[in-house]
Structures are given as structure tokens and as C-alpha cells.
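Ticket #284: bound-state structure for NAP.
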Amino acid sequence: MNTALGIIGYPIGHSMSPVFQQAALDACGVDARYMAYQVAPDEVEEFVNGLRQPAVLGINVTVPHKLAVMPFLDEIDDWATEAGAVNTIVNRQGRLTGHNTDGYGFLRALRESAGFEPRGRRTLVLGAGGAARGVVLALAREGVGVLTIANRTPERAESLAQLARNRGITSSPIPLPGPELIESAATAELIVNCTTIGMTHGPGEDETPLPGDAIPPTALVNDLVYNPIETRLLREAAQAGAKTLGGIEMLVYQGAASFEMWLERPAPVPVMLEAAIRAMQSRI
Ligand SMILES: NC(=O)c1ccc[n+]([C@@H]2O[C@H](COP(=O)([O-])OP(=O)(O)OC[C@H]3O[C@@H](n4cnc5c(N)ncnc54)[C@H](OP(=O)(O)O)[C@@H]3O)[C@@H](O)[C@H]2O)c1
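RESOLUTION: The complex was predicted; output attached.
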């Protein structure tokens, strides 16, 4: 076996990617190993240059290196340039290209796992960090309807709303929490949690960014948090009669997009999803 794939981060022990990417490689009979590489910030340049060798198909990139890898690549695609972050590097005959599959993974999860078409739909995004930026850019590309962005730090919500307005989307920032949040949720057709609230070992473990009684039964609630698989937000949304979508689908679809770029063949998404869910359940 001499084909190499993997993920770099610092630290990297928490990453789910090796589990579902290896499952995909095995299911497709590809003789390759997907490894996790812990790379310190001062080793990034040397590591990226080492990816030009023929045995390497490419790698995924996670925190804190998504921006740091960019100067060492030969080309960066539109999604990664807009997001200001690379999560996938492809090696073709020593030429390295940078991509960002988060937005694509988010949209594919919405469409394929929840049957939801975002064009023209009134949407509430909770949070304004890195994940929210990718989600807002993806929604703006698809011509989402009125877009409200709720965040604890108001300046970050305003700057994301401005990003959406620059792309022709009607968008405004509101505080999280607050009465405007409850008001905005009441008419939202799509609610996406991009905060870390509800995340295992996070600051707001088993908390929710939005009270259950503020969730309309007609909405789709997508929580990007994937650990735990069922967050309090998703539990309360289901109790309110709303449709729900967890974060593990986006995680797998963004990885499937990387797989498809490296191997130029369809990714076995059901296999990847099953491996990710099984691994997550065994972590609890
Ligand atoms: N499913 C997937 O594929 C996928 C992909 C990417 C990320 N995620 C998940 O998405 C979540 C966000 O990731 P990120 O990279 O965007 O993180 P980030 O850049 O650190 O942003 C964190 C966001 O959470 C908000 N927040 C944190 N603690 C809060 C609190 N106690 N009260 C109110 N707001 C709070 C922050 O508000 P301030 O701006 O006020 O600090 C900010 O908006 C994580 O759980 C991550 O695992 C999932």
C-alpha cells in the first residue's frame, strides 16, 4: 500500500474523519490508508510541501490550519477563497489545489437528508463564527429568502449580515438571546444552529440556543453540533413537531465531497454515515 490520505490539525485526536473516510476507502476496495496527522503551526509549510509526492492523493485540513495552509498552495477555488478557509487539499502531479467543502456538505445534507430546498426560504442562523460563515455563504449562493443572524457578540452578527447583503440577500443581525430571537423563530422555515451551545464538553453542554416553545412545527431545525447526535435543541424541536436534521450528515457530506475530489468517483455516503454514527455512539 502506498497511497496516502489523511487529515491535519493541532490537536487532531478528536477528529471523526479517519473513521468514515477509511470506511469509504475499504468499501470501495481502494488500497489506501487515511491517517490523522498532528502538525504544529510551525510545521505546516514543510508538511504541505511534502504532499506533492506521487503517493499522496490529498488531505483534509482542520483547526487551526484552515487559513495557514493557503499560502503554500498553487490554486484556491471560489468556495475556499470566499470562506477564507481550506478544508481539502488535492494533489495532482505535484500541483496542490485548495478547496472548501463545508458549504457544499451543508447544502447536500439539507437536500438529500431533509429534502429541503433553501431558495427563497425565510431562515434564522444562530451563531456567527466559522461554521456560520460557511453556512451563510452557501445559503446566499442558493438565493435564500430573508436571512436573520442571531449572535451573542452583535458585531459578528452584523458583519455576517453585511456579507449576505453584499450578495443580494435581505439580512439583519439580532442579539442571542433576546425577544427578537423569539419573534424571528416564529416565522422561520429553516433554523440552523451554528453556535457551540449543546456540544458535549462545550461551555453550554445540554443547553439550547433557542427555547423549545419558540420553535414552530413547520420549521426544519438543523443543528450543526454533531456530538451528541441528538442535542437538546433537536430533542425540543422534535417535541414541538418540527422536522430535525443533526450535524453528522453535514460532516459526512463535506467528507464525501473531499473523497470524490481525491478519487474522482462517487463516495459511498451510507457507509460513511453508518461508520460515523457508530463511532459517535461508542464515544458516549
Ligand atoms: N456538522 C459539521 O460538519 C460542522 C462543521 C463545522 C462546525 N460544526 C460545529 O459548529 C459549531 C460551531 O463551530 P465554529 O467553528 O463556528 O465555532 P466558532 O467559530 O468558535 O463560533 C462559535 C459560535 O458559538 C457562539 N457561542 C459560543 N458559546 C456561546 C454561549 N455560551 N452563548 C451564546 N453563543 C455562544 C459564538 O458566539 P460569539 O461570536 O459571541 O463568541 C459563535 O457564534 C461547533 O459545535 C462545531 O462542532 C459542525
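RESOLUTION NOTES: The mean pLDDT is 96.
TICKET STATUS: resolved
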